[in-house]
Amino acid sequence: MTAFTVALVLVVAAAGLLRWRRPAWYWMTFGVTLASLRVLVRYASVMDACGLTVPPPRWRLALARIANRPVPDSRPPRILRFRPTRTGLVLRLGLRPGQDAFDVAAASDRLRHSFSMYGVTSREVRSGVVEVRMTGYDVLKRVQMPAKVDTRPMRVPVALREDGSVHYRDYRAVPHALTLGATESGKSVYQRNLVAGLAPMDVALVGIDCKQGVELFPLARRFSALADNPDTAAELLDALVSRMEGVYQLIRAEQRITSAVPDAEIAADIWDLPDGIRPVPVVVLVDEVAELALFAGKEEEKRRDRIITTLVRLAQLGRAAGIYLEICGQRFGSELGKGITMLRAQLTGRTAHRVNDETSANMAFGDISPEAVLAAIQIPAETRGLAIAGDSTGGWHRIRAPHTSLRQAVNTCNRHADRTPALPELAAFRPELVSSSEAPVPLSKTAPVTA
């Protein structure tokens, strides 16, 4: 056996081992080159087999008849750009006359099989231009966020999409969102990623955790206000409404509506104000919304109506004042009482982890996309963190957040604790931090021993 043969065997064995144990490494070392060659060589024949070609124009057919030449072949879409990425390939195609972006989307599964890729998705960039993203391996099996992400104010990278791109939670584009998920579905990990991403930003975090604070109170050093029961939550939400009204008064005072001011400089929300006087934006995280909507008596029903009414008011009016809602829960339907469907209608962003029934998936995507409902109920129980993310436009993606332990999230919040703003309206709800030297407070009193 020659040295070349031995080296070739070792390379093939190393490639097979990497593909089995470390698919991302295999893709970067071997897979991207092989896949690029395969796509470029097979492109014309695959497009023809998938029905993505158009006949040649009449003038070419006439010219071929006049010159007594063979009839020209059908033409596939033009490749405008070909770019390898760390997870796959990106092709930007220029469609021929008579072709439609829906044709490419309908042929995505056939393209995946023909090019031997793990997944193929497409989206229309502009009229006549379609971007096809191919993934070389299952990027959601072991989520690894890229080292460089597009971070902007109020834009948080929280998960990875199945096409290898980063899924962002952009509060300025989608002010309010709803996150659903059954127990042990990965909803808490998604929330931790969100808090950890917001921690380095100039933003005030407000939490409502009616599970006695077990989810959000470990992150208290980065929160400007926290509530751990429905009674405190009702008062906290009223304080947020008062802050919202004060911010609107500031915007009115600084609108600068005069004939000498160009229209582009007239303020209509906090982002139009100068940096020196702009109020800090507020993100309100509700860990379990059902605990705010359930009641067992007349007094609790009054409190419940007060809470839901305040949430609806914040969802309708809070965006311009820089108040954004992040509502989480296991279920979110009309059985929670009046006002719930009105609140859900204001929550543009929708994320659903594994749910226990189809009705829960319909709560998230029934008014958006039937395909997203089907994808949500097909999430396997053993794949924690996998979710379907969509919005009111009807588009949806399969995403998965990287695993972030509670310890990692706490460390991130503690590291950026100096960024926690003190809001006067919410001073009464600022969490009290207990030092490690103090004895823990028991949750219940010990009954005295009687003889």
From TrEMBL:
User: Which part of the chain is the FtsK domain?
Assistant: 163-362
| Chain residues that bind ATP | G181, A182, T183, E184, S185, G186, K187, S188
Gene3D superfamilies given in the database record: P-loop containing nucleotide triphosphate hydrolases
One MF term in the entry's GO annotations: ATP binding
Protein's name in the database: S-DNA-T family DNA segregation ATPase FtsK/SpoIIIE
* Keyword entries, A-Z: ATP-binding, Nucleotide-binding
Pfam families (UniProt xref)? FtsK_SpoIIIE
Look up the domain of life of the source: Bacteria
What InterPro entries would the database entry show? FtsK/SpoIIIE/SftA (IPR050206), FtsK_dom (IPR002543), P-loop_NTPase (IPR027417)
